[in-house]
Structures are given as structure tokens and as C-alpha cells.
Description:
Elements: E1 2-4, H1 21-36, E2 39-43, H2 50-58, H3 64-69, E3 71-73, H4 78-85, E4 89-92, H5 100-122, E5 140-143, H6 151-163, E6 167-172, H7 176-180, H8 184-187, E7 190-195, H9 201-214, H10 227-237, H11 241-257, H12 265-274
Parallel strand pairs: 1-3, 2-6, 2-7, 4-5, 5-6
The protein binds adenosine-5'-triphosphate and magnesium ion.
Amino acid sequence: xxxxxxxxxxxxxxxxxxxxxxxxxxxxxxxxxxxxxxxxxxxxxxxxxxxxxxxxxxxxxxxxxxxxxxxxxxxxxxxxxxxxxxxxxxxxxxxxxxxxxxxxxxxxxxxxxxxxxxxxxxxxxxxxxxxxxxxxxxxxxxxxxxxxxxxxxxxxxxxxxxxxxxxxxxxxxxxxxxxxxxxxxxxxxxxxxxxxxxxxxxxxxxxxxxxxxxxxxxxxxxxxxxxxxxxxxxxxxxxxxxxxxxxxxxxxxxxxxxxxxxxxxxxxxxxxxxxxxxxx
Length: 280
Ligand SMILES: Nc1ncnc2c1ncn2[C@@H]1O[C@H](COP(=O)(O)OP(=O)(O)OP(=O)(O)O)[C@@H](O)[C@H]1O
Ligand SMILES: [Mg+2]
């Protein structure tokens, strides 16, 4: 275990994270699974924001280094200690190739590191914080990329859930719910299913204003040459966060190269042609 004292390495929340309607629905779903200690299933197409939402909900930026790199912070400022104290959600992403033994080892590792870290924050002022936690602080385990789990690894996760006191949320692609229906023991424990949906039109417009501002553009009335440009962005991105980010980066590039001050439908379409993936 290394000891980290450098202040500049302190973890920070992602400032660019936007609290969308889908994020709120996802958070409510996760809290229900945590409260009822159920298994919940969350599925959605790639790029809608499932992983980022889970990380944000769990405040995983506080734990990422601790858990993946085994780094413990000694110089925690009081503000961070207070945040860590209240965390009760842990996140686990299985590797592409996984065996039940590996999954068991890794999940128990994450749960134990998580509880130790929360315990350390709770007893920050005391002397004895390095001892093993007596309480399991994790009340909800979120398993991202659950499609990767083989049948026996899924069984292993169910076993960990059965033996523990926490809720469990499995995140995956659409179709995961159908795959799990083939395992009656696991399926019978699923209390809630939740589809992570794409962004609504109103949210895309809201995000565009925000993003363009962040990218250094000012969006004023009439800056879009016509409503066609906006409509083109909505059509091309189809409510997909990842695609929206990529398209905006390309739009910025096209505008800089051509020294343009406003966005037209042609700019949007040129930017779309530069995208390698996901154009619809
Ligand atoms: N709430 C959000 N605020 C800001 N950006 C977001 C948000 N949600 C998603 N994004 C952007 O969209 C990208 C894709 O999000 P994310 O990786 O969470 O999608 P995903 O649904 O997990 O996709 P996959 O199924 O491929 O794993 C992020 O890298 C980020 O740039
Ligand atoms: Mg993801």
C-alpha cells in the first residue's frame, strides 16, 4: 500500500457532468434497489451515459485511485473526508475475460477496499483507522458492463449478493434482460428493470447551449444560421451523448479551419462526414 501526500493528486468531481432527466431516473432506480436490497437491471444503447451516471452517483472519483491503484490518501482535506464518509455505493467493472474465481476475488476486493476507505474517513480524527472495518459500508454494488459476465460469473455475483446485505444493479446493453431471463434463479431476484433512454430534444438544445459555451462559442439568438442546423444536429446525434460530444468537437474544427462565426447546416454535415463511427 502506498501513501500519497501530494495535494495536487486529490480526486475531483467531473465538472462537465450534466444532470439530465435520465440521470435522475437512473439515480431514483438505484436508490430503490439500495433501499429494498433488490437486484436491478439497467440497460441502454452504447453512449447514452450509463457508466458516467453510475460513476457520478457513486462519487467514484473519490475511490477510483484507492481501489484500482491501491493508493491511500493521508492528507485528506476535511471537505473530502465528509464526502467519503457518506458514500454507500461501490462500482465494479469485470474484465473482458472473467472466471468466477477472478470475479469473486475482485468483487470482494472492491467491497473491502471501499469499506476500509469509508471507515478511514469516519475515524479520520481517531488513531485506529487502519484496522479492518467492522461494518460493511456498501449498501449498493453496481456492476457495469455486466454483458461481459459469463454464466458462471453471473452465478458468482448472485452468490455474493445472496450472502451480503446490499442491493445490486447490473448495467449492460439492451438484450441483457433477455439473456438473464434464461437463468431463473437470478431472474427471480430481479426487482426492477430500467431502460436508460436517449436524450430528449429539449435536453439536446440545453446541452448545445452549454457545450458551445464550453467549447468557446457564444450561442446567441440568431447565431445558428437557421433552424436547419439545429435540426441537423438533433437528427445526426439522435439523443446519443457520445455522438453529440464527437460531433461538437468536429464542428469546432470545421469552424476554426474555415474561420466561421456561426453554425450552418453545411458546417454540421461537413462535421458529420468527418466522424468515423456512429453516423445515422
Ligand atoms: N450526464 C453526462 N454529462 C456529460 N457528458 C456525458 C453525460 N453522460 C454521458 N456523457 C458523455 O457521453 C460519453 C459516453 O458516456 P458513457 O461512457 O457513460 O456511455 P455508456 O452508456 O456507458 O456507453 P457504453 O454502453 O458504450 O459503455 C461520455 O464519455 C461523456 O462524454
Ligand atoms: Mg459504459
